[in-house]
Design a protein that fits this description.
Length: 340
């Protein structure tokens, strides 16, 4: 990214109210266009964020979106002039004059009730929890929204009083947030780091289907559905449905997803009766499913990654082994028999 952009944002920052750096290439302050909330002096809904090689501004109160250059010009025309000169001298190509703001505006994930937890990205590289996650080859870009929850029962009780009546046997878990399309937390899953049972505990904060990845998925591309949130991180445009209801109608960003627009990718466990039942039900609903080839001996996508398959290879295997209708019924019967 052009360092000039961030340099000039910093030069401007004393003139921006409640200016804060929120992350890599993400800054937040009160909107200098609409003045932000008139009732609350603490609300700050203006954001500068990176898109490709430039910084852009977006206000979540008035909805205004523009280039960093225009923001500089609006607040301080002198700083803006210096900025233009410096960019010109250093040969930076100018911004697309009419950038599109309808897309790619990042979802701003609030830590909210997770504010006292440390994300995996905040842990030192030799922290045991981080090591477990790294050993599973979880994509590092996901580390900032996965958390270490040191006492899972106790933490949950602060949100839902008495959810765990006894704190006996409380232990640390990886907390996986389930966020809605706006990035609001509505449920979370605690995954055991070791052999603790059950392996997954899902806690609902709102009465809503337990679907992971709604903050990242788009209705405009083919959608993949898996069982495990961590598995979903390896597939593009993928969600995970916890509690297994793969034949239920699916609504994403206000659109009912048609059977042709999605593929259900269940774990590779032909001997698991529950999974076989899910596959049958999914096929009966007219959906496409993946039937893993016989040489694949790993039970889920994460295990395949650990065994050395790349993301691209797994995507290809999925594409080549997607079936529906009568062909799927035949292949499914075969798969159960061979692996019985
Ligand atoms: Zn505004």
């Amino acid at each position: 990214m052009s360092y000039i952009d961030s340099k000039y944002l910093n030069i401007l920052s004393p003139q921006l109210l409640r200016f804060k750096k929120k992350g890599d290439f993400l800054w937040n302050f009160r909107c200098p266009y609409c003045g932000d909330s008139q009732k609350s002096r603490s609300k700050a809904r203006g954001f500068v964020y990176r898109k490709k090689n430039d910084l852009f501004y977006k206000c979540h109160n008035c909805g205004l979106g523009t280039t960093l250059g225009n923001l500089l010009k609006h607040v301080d025309s002198k700083i803006h002039k210096d900025y233009i000169m410096e960019r010109y001298r250093s040969g930076v190509k100018s911004n697309n004059p009419e950038p599109e703001f309808k897309f790619d505006v990042p979802v701003f994930r609030k830590k909210g009730v997770l504010k006292n937890l440390k994300s995996i990205s905040e842990l030192s590289t030799d922290h045991p929890a981080r090591k477990i996650i790294e050993k599973r080859h979880i994509p590092p870009k996901s580390f900032s929204d996965l958390y270490l929850c040191k006492s899972f029962y106790k933490f949950t009780n602060t949100l839902i009083p008495n959810k765990f009546p006894s704190l006996d046997g409380d232990h640390p878990r990886l907390l996986i947030p389930f966020r809605d399309e706006k990035g609001e937390l509505f449920a979370y899953q605690g995954r055991a780091f070791g052999k603790e049972q059950p392996k997954y505990i899902t806690i609902k904060l709102k009465d809503k289907d337990k679907i992971f990845g709604l903050d990242k998925v788009t209705k405009d591309k083919h959608i993949y559905i898996v069982e495990g949130p961590l598995d979903s991180l390896f597939i593009d445009n993928c969600i995970a449905i916890a509690g297994a209801n793969f034949d239920k109608p699916l609504m994403i960003q206000g659109k009912f997803i048609q059977n042709g627009e999605l593929t259900v990718v269940l774990d590779n466990e032909p001997r698991n009766r529950e999974i076989c039942k899910q596959m049958e039900r999914t096929l009966s609903a007219g959906r496409k499913i993946v039937i893993w080839p016989d040489h694949m001996n790993w039970k889920d996508i994460n295990d395949m990654i650990i065994a050395g398959y790349t993301k691209q290879q797994i995507q290809e295997i999925i594409t080549d082994n997607t079936f529906c209708g009568a062909v799927a019924q035949l292949r499914f019967a075969e798969w159960r028999k061979i692996n019985a």
